[in-house]
Design a protein that fits this description.
By secondary structure, this protein is mostly helical. The chain has helices at 17-21, 26-44, 46-58, 62-88, 92-110, 116-133, 135-146, 150-161, 164-214, 222-229, 232-252, 255-261, 266-274, 276-290, 296-315, 324-350, 355-409, and strands at 2-4, 10-12. The protein has one domain (24-409): Growth Hormone, Chain: A, CATH 1.20.1250. Strands 1-2 form a two-stranded antiparallel sheet. The two termini are 16 Å apart.
Length: 415
């Protein structure tokens, strides 16, 4: 049943509240949480974790290697709206599980790479898989199927998945020592196929049952969705989160070389990178504690400023090595909150109707920022070293903060 929510927007009430409650919350959320943790660990964070090894073993330059990762993220960004539209129309299981399977198969083939063109082709198709299996489609499925419980579901998924880097960096380091990088990516692929895919299918089964009772119907007229995308609020949100993705990508994609440049040993650098995960979880727990007392906008401001302060900390770490500690805390916590706040901001400012395609379209910018980051960092490093890269990470979140404040001031109510 459709009702006015008091803000001029139309919402869809569950056909039967009792029917929705019969679907246990945990049967959707925890399978997704474990699956997201592992897919991020196995084919997103595996790239920065193995980058120095690939550079040494394959003989490709750092810029060439990061170009392949950039390509994969661009592909994921371009395909995000199509994936979102499929999820809005109830095909989340095909999108989510299919993306994980495709990426796992590509990882197996990656273990046989000897030529640079092969490396690029495989990361292209891993990008296709990412479009269907990283946070964006997972959040779209949860928002589509869980109604008012979606926000809590997203928080719990990201609390668990915050440990993806903690899983990936040490695992890659240890497995590489025993099996080499080719054996490492094969193990990662098997984890996705044997653990993630069954969990995704299980969670999607219950999400689909829930969606029959609570999901809003997707618009049949594309013009209705396009009206939202023409609002200033939409564009300010897009600019803000694209910049934040670029900022975080500059750090994550070059994490180990940046730590080495700051005088850290390899083991210390791996440990610091591994602590990003727990700090992401800490940031999300802090958000849960604060969200009842402060607005979403205040949380956004704190998130953006923490990432700028993180850049200052690591920039000064060559003089004061202990500044690596606040860097890891601030960058990790900021990135952790960013994962939750992005879908929350989209739903609050633009509504939940057609969330999949709207969020997917915004994800083009967000993923493009992540996609450009490795190559941008490499190019800037060629010009001015990692000092110049880190100066960018200080300035970018401040610009993004101005954009998100503008989004609130130009807030559009979409009816």
């Amino acid at each position: 049943m459709r009702q006015d929510d008091g803000d001029g927007r139309m919402t869809v009430e569950p056909a039967s509240e009792g029917a929705e409650e019969r679907i246990p919350f945990a049967q959707v959320v925890w399978p997704f949480a474990i699956a997201e943790t592992l897919v991020w660990a196995c084919y997103y964070y595996s790239f920065p974790a193995l980058l120095p090894t690939w550079e040494a073993d394959l003989g490709f330059s750092k810029t060439t290697l990061t170009g392949a990762f950039t390509l994969s993220l661009i592909v994921a960004a371009v395909l995000a709206p199509a994936a979102g539209r499929m999820i809005d129309r109830g095909r989340g299981r095909l999108v989510f599980a299919g993306g994980a399977v495709l990426s796992a198969v590509m990882l197996i083939l990656l273990s046989q790479v000897t030529e640079v063109w092969q490396f690029y082709v495989l990361w292209f198709f891993i990008g296709v898989g990412m479009a269907g299996s990283l946070y964006e489609p997972c959040f779209a499925i949860l928002t589509h199927s869980m109604g008012e419980r979606a926000r809590r579901a997203i928080i719990l998924v990201t609390l668990a998945a915050g440990f993806a880097g903690t899983v990936s960096f040490p695992s890659a380091h240890i497995l590489n020592g025993f099996l080499g990088w080719r054996g490492t990516v094969t193990v990662f692929a098997l984890v996705v196929l044997l653990i993630c895919v069954p969990l995704i299918l299980y969670g999607c089964h219950y999400a689909n049952r829930n969606a029959r009772h609570s999901a809003p119907k997707a618009s049949t007229d594309a013009r209705a969705t396009m009206a939202v995308m023409r609002t200033p609020t939409f564009w300010m949100i897009g600019i803000a989160f694209t910049l934040l993705a670029l900022d975080h990508g500059l750090i994550v994609s070059h994490m180990l070389p940046i730590m080495a440049d700051r005088g850290m040993s390899e083991d210390t650098a791996v440990f610091a990178a591994s602590m990003f995960g727990p700090m992401q979880v800490a940031g999300r727990l802090a958000m849960i504690a604060a969200e009842r007392h402060v607005s979403v906008l205040v949380i956004c401001c704190a998130c953006f400023l923490s990432m700028s302060l993180a850049g200052i900390s690591v920039f000064l770490a060559t003089s004061v090595a202990l500044l690596i500690v606040p860097f890891v805390i601030l960058q990790g916590a900021g990135a952790g909150v960013l994962s939750i706040i992005r879908p929350t901001v989209v739903a609050e400012l633009l509504g939940r109707k057609d969330f999949g395609v709207i969020s997917g379209t915004l994800a083009i910018g967000f993923v493009a920022g992540s996609a450009l980051a490795p190559t941008v960092a490499s190019l800037v490093w060629n010009v001015g070293g990692y000092d110049m890269v880190l100066l960018l990470t200080i300035a970018i979140p401040v610009i993004a903060l101005g954009s998100i404040v503008a989004a609130w001031k130009m807030r559009a109510v979409v009816g």
